[in-house]
Amino acid sequence: MISSLSIALGTLRANPLRTVLSTLGIVIGAAALVAVLTLGDGMERFGRQQLATTTDLQSVVLEPRTAEIIDNQAYPLDDYLVLTRADAESIMASIPEVSAGLLTLTGSAVVELAAGLTDTAEVLGTLPSQAAVLRRDFAAGRYFTSEEATRSSPVAVLSFGLGTVLGGGDPAGAVGKQVRIRGNDYEVVGVLASAGPERIPSVYVPIELAGAALAPTPRPRAPTLVLQAERVEDVRTVRSGVEAWLTARLGTDWARKARVQTNMARVVQTERGILVFKLFLGAITGIALIVGGIGIMNVLLASVTERTREIGVRKAIGARRRDLLAQFLLESVTIAGLGSVLGTLLGFAGAFGVTALMRQRFDAPVYAAFSWGTLAVSAGAAVVVGVVFGIYPALRAARLSPIEAIRHE
To answer: CB–CB of 297/392 below 8 Å?
Structure first.
């Protein structure tokens, strides 16, 4: 094998122009492969970020059933599920594919902003992590922390409209002031940024304090848990994990006391779209590689014809068929490997350059994504192309009769 490799490399060095031309096809094919895969990875990552932030495709909702429908009549349940913060943390800890969770208790209350100034607002009891999940910006201040959620003096976060009114036209002026809800004073620690016209003002408080902020009800309020899956493909796994937790907690008839909701129809459509996108990219890059491989095969076939006498002499002095087979295969793989290395560098440079130009000219948040998978595919493709398109010229050389080959002019 070492001898065959030495002969193959010597042949490639003896014909530099032919080697460069045959390598060029693989360089172009590998560059196209790497560039398309890199751009595709970046576009897929951008698309997934948009899906996670602007849609509820990756959401799995656990909602308690407070009533049972019998003959189209609703009958209240006395033993419905009332989720706690410990329950939410237990569910999220048991399902690795969950990226975040929202435990929300919602109701309305009258909020006193100042002497004689009141407003009816939606009061939401949440976990401290909700700000990161919602990805909301702040006009002033911040969201409350875990320490503030458990301390005796209550805190609150206001929507932009309430904060502007409380701050006298400036949301920053509301931070540090207090609002009163059902006789209790809440210190304002943050004001959310404007998200457009505000139909109903909102006040966010720690879920442990929501009971005191909301109007009393005959029965306990039931919070809703919304889980975010890491990826669209993880929605089924998260749902199965939630159902397993409910089975362990409530038994096999858990569906009577709670419901688990997802947008499975849209999730399936999204998964199908991502798969079609990947197959489309693979088809484009496959065509480029096939063109480069045909170039290698043509060059090697011409080389076999030109070196027929050399092949005959080698066979006459003892070279076996497998020696010649190894020689020409190594030539093919060497050309493909060298072209793959150069094409990979060129492809990465082109992909990052194109995305940088797109960000500069069109202000599009598109980035090329480097991945070891792309490098592995590029290296594997080089070996496959070298072997597949080098096997026929190698077999043709190995099958030549030494007598006829030596007589060849």
So the answer is: yes
Chosen domain end from 224, 242, 262 = 262
Lowest mean pLDDT among 46-60, 110-124, 215-229: 46-60
Tokens of 346: 């060129």
Looking at residue 134, what is its pLDDT?
Answer: 63
Do residue 77 and residue 225 come from a single domain?
yes
**Helix H or strand E encompassing 64:** strand 59-64
- pLDDT tens per residue, range 67-118: 777 777 777 777 788 888 888 888 988 999 888 888 888 888 888 887 567 7
Residue 240 has pLDDT above 60, yes or no: yes
pLDDT tens figures, 283-334: 776 776 677 677 767 766 776 666 677 777 777 777 777 777 777 777 777 7
Amino acid at the residue 216: P
Tell me the residue range of the domain where 196 lies. 59-262
CA distance 162 to 174: 9
Residue 211 to residue 123: CA distance in whole angstroms: 10
At 326, is the secondary structure helix, strand, or coil? helix
| pTM of the shown model | 0.61
Same-domain check for residues 253 and 367: no
Backbone angles phi, psi at 64, to 5 degrees: -65, 150
Amino acid symbol at 299: V
Instruction: Examine the domain organization and report whether 119 and 30 are in the same domain.
Output: no
Question: CA Rg, the chain, in Å?
Answer: 34
Residues 48 and 65 in one domain: no
Structure token digits, residue 98? 């969950």
Residue with tokens 């975010």: 228
Alpha-helical (H) ranges within 307-371 are 308-316, 321-362
- Cα gap 288→320, rounded to integer Å: 35
Residues 67 and 37 in one domain: no
Q: Cα–chain-centroid distance for residue 328?
A: 43
Domain count, the chain: 2
Last residue of a domain, one of 221, 242, 262: 262
Cα gap 112→178, rounded to integer Å:
9
Identity of the residue numbered 180: R
Contact between residue 42 and residue 355 where contact means Cβ atoms under 8 Å apart: yes
**Is 68 found in the same domain as 207?**
yes
269 inside domain: no
